[in-house]
Amino acid sequence: MAKTLVFIPMYNCEKQIVRVLSKFDKEVLEYVQEVIVVNNRSTDNGEAAVLKFKAEHQEVPVKLFRNRDNYGLGGSHKVAFNYALENGFTHVIVLHGDDQGDIHDLLPYLRDGSAYGYDSFLGSRFEKESKLVNYSGFRIFGNHVFNAFMTVMLGRRITDLGSGLNMYSAEYLKNGFYKYFINTLTFNVYMLIYGVYSKSNFKFFPLTWREEDQVSNAKFFKQSREIFKVVFSYKFNKKKTFAMTPNEYSDKEYLSDEIN
Fold first, then answer.
1. 4-252 sits in which CATH class?
2. pLDDT tens, 141-175?
3. What does the pLDDT read at residue 213?
4. 3 state SS for the chain
5. pTM of whole model > 0.90?
6. By the 8 A CB rule, do 168 and 90 touch?
């Protein structure tokens, strides 16, 4: 039987985090056993907002954690993946705390069981059935270019380099491959390319994606350079890219404390 954890990375999402948590209704909670919000050293009042929500909605099994240092988005993933493996979860859903994606987009695939059949079940903003709300034409064009480039370079159809709604099997994560990846936003790209490298079973599903009061942490040109760097590294030396030899990321402790 599936035991599913939802991990919500939070960084300065005070205005959005309660909206995200409010979507965990009875329908969603049929498939989710626990929700953890991992605060990556935010400077706003996001923690207070989560604690207030917890007090007022005890039916939602949510816990709040605070990272002991700013580990970046990738580091927060490592905190959550480690937690899932240590606590016997079979699956981890990643849902960003900025309210761009909606957990309900995953529901049809949880109901029919298809989401559980993949190592990675990845939300995509650019599938044919996806809907983009208030998304700039420049960003849409840029993402399509990157997706086409990645498809050619990886030899596998790619429709998103990393959205804010993904599901992973704990069985897939248990060898700890993710511990060696960079902690920046490019962490998701490493996760994707490793999925190709390891010949894992992954699939994209369509999302409704909205941008209204969200603030993206992505720096377009810096992010682009990092993506090109890892793609070419993989293309010309696959084994070295994913050698899982100790590095500055794998040697780091990712510690987080529960906040009540």
1. alpha beta
2. 989 999 999 999 999 999 999 999 999 999 999 99
3. 62
4. CCCEEEEEEECCCCCCHHHHHHCCCHHHHCCCCEEEEEECCCCCCHHHHHHHHHHHCCCCCEEEEEECCCCHHHHHHHHHHHHHHHCCCCEEEEECCCCCCCHHHHHHHHHCCHHHHCCEEEEECCCCCCEEECCCHHHHHHHHHHHHHHHHHHCCCCCCCCCCEEEEEHHHHCCCHHHHCCCCCCHHHHHHHHHHHCCCCEEEEECEEECCCCCCCCCHHHHHHHHHHHHHHHHHCHHHHCCCCCCCCCCCCCCEEEEC
5. yes
6. no
Write down the pLDDT at residue 136.
87
Residues of the chain with pLDDT under 50: none
Q: Which two tokens stand for residue 123?
A: 């939300």
Map out the domains of the chain as residue ranges: 4-252
pLDDT of residue 197: 97
pLDDT attached to residue 223: 82
- Looking at residue 83, its amino acid is Y
